[in-house]
Every structure is written in structure tokens, then in C-alpha cells.
């Protein structure tokens, strides 16, 4: 414990305030880093568009919205629609309330906000403070490092313990399918970035450690942003739209063309109390 406290006092806290991209700019030009970020953004756009065209998600949403509009029992005013959208953003999107109060929601929030902090810190430091002479405000490296830690914790928690095929279907945690590409690449990019930042701060000179993890950091980002079409990355854009459409449908009475809830008493049998619901 004493050694851990000594590390935090001497190096741990200092590490959090170091801009790794400023140090990296001594060997790699800032324009190269900035170009890489722009290319990653373009890959996300292209991958999402290809995903939309192939899976026809947006077409489904629009057609479903048209059907719901015909069966609506109430015409919502602009103010009512705005209120529903704002409540959806504040509840379903910002706090993932649809997951309920539990471990799954906590893991998602850790990963979601960790990713937002990590990406925001990356963009700001690369485009504003990526030069050897840059005086980076300590808040941005802290945001970047804390975001990476949060993403690793949330993603690992989900991967090892909360995935449906592991939690409910007794599959081994190391079983990997195409749907796992997003969370694995997300955790890998944060983990390799964090290790690279730490090793680079040690000033290893000609040693290979930091360079290896820099390469792994780059590769994991290429997989993450370049694999949008094959992963669940695009779901980040679909889910907010689906949540808004669902709540609007409930507000206007169309309920996505589903029947209304029954007034009959809930009778599920004694089996419902034997264990927590986890078999999907």
C-alpha cells in the first residue's frame, strides 16, 4: 500500500497530466496525427452509410413511422414532440434508463461516458496541443486518461460478466463472435493507449516498449473505426433514433402498431420468483 501511495504521489498523478500526443509530436508531425483522426472520422461515415444501405435500417424507421402516424390517436404539437425528445435524451440516451437500475446499466454508463471523455480529449489534444512546445491545460490529459480507465472498466465488466451469451447462455467468456468486434476494439484502443502513454512518459529512449504499444494503439483504432460495417459501432447512431420514435409513438397513442397493455392481473406462476430474469 505504501508503494502504491508513493507511486500515485510521485508518478501516478503526474502521468494523468501529461499530454502523450505532445511528446509524440517530437517524432511524428502533428499534421500526421490530425490526418489520422480525420481519416478515422471518414471511415465511420462510410461504414455507417454502407451499413444503412445494406441493412436498410433508416428505411425501416421511416416506414414504421409512417404506419404509426396513420394509427395515431392524438396529433402531437411541436411543443409536445420537443418535450418527448428532450425527455428521451435525458433519460433513455444520457442515462440508459431502459436498462433499469443494475450492473448492466452501470457498465454501459462507465463505457459510454469513458469513451466520450477519451475521444473528446484525443481530438482536443491532437488538434490544439500536439506540438513539443504546447502548454496543454492539465484538464485535457486528465480527461483523456480518466476516460480510458472508465472505458476499460466498463467494457471489461460487460465482456467478462454481463454479455448475454456468457451471463444467460453459459458460454465461455473467451468465445468471440463478429458482434463482439466493437467492444473488444474499444477496450483495446483505450488499454493500449493508456499503456503507451505510461511507457512514453518513462522516457525509454531506444527501448521498444512504448513503440510497440503505440503501434497496437494505432491498429486497435483502425479496427474500431474501420470495422464499423462489421461491428455494432453504428448502433450508437440507431439506438437514439429508435428510442425517440418509440416514445413519440407512446405519446401519440400509436404504440408502434402494438396492442395496448392489458388491465388483467399479472399472473406468471411461481417460477417467476425462483430466480432473477436472465434467460433471453
The share of residues in extended strands comes to under 5%
* Structural class by secondary-structure content: mainly alpha
The average pLDDT score comes to 83
Radius of gyration over all CA atoms, rounded: 23 Å
Spatial gap, N to C terminus: 43 Å
**Could you give the order of the helices and strands?**
HHHHHHHHHHH
| Residue share in helix | 55-70%
Low-confidence stretches: none
* Largest sheet features: none
Overall body shape: elongated
Account of the 3D structure:
- The protein is mainly α.
- Helix content is 67%, strand content 0%.
- The protein contains 11 helices and no strands.
- It has helices at 2-16, 20-24, 30-55, 57-70, 78-93, 103-128, 139-162, 164-167, 181-201, 209-226, 235-252.
- Helix 7 (139-162) packs across helix 9 (181-201).
- The longest helix is centred in the N-terminal third of the chain and has 26 residues, at 30-55.
- The two termini are 43 Å apart.
- The relative contact order is 0.15.
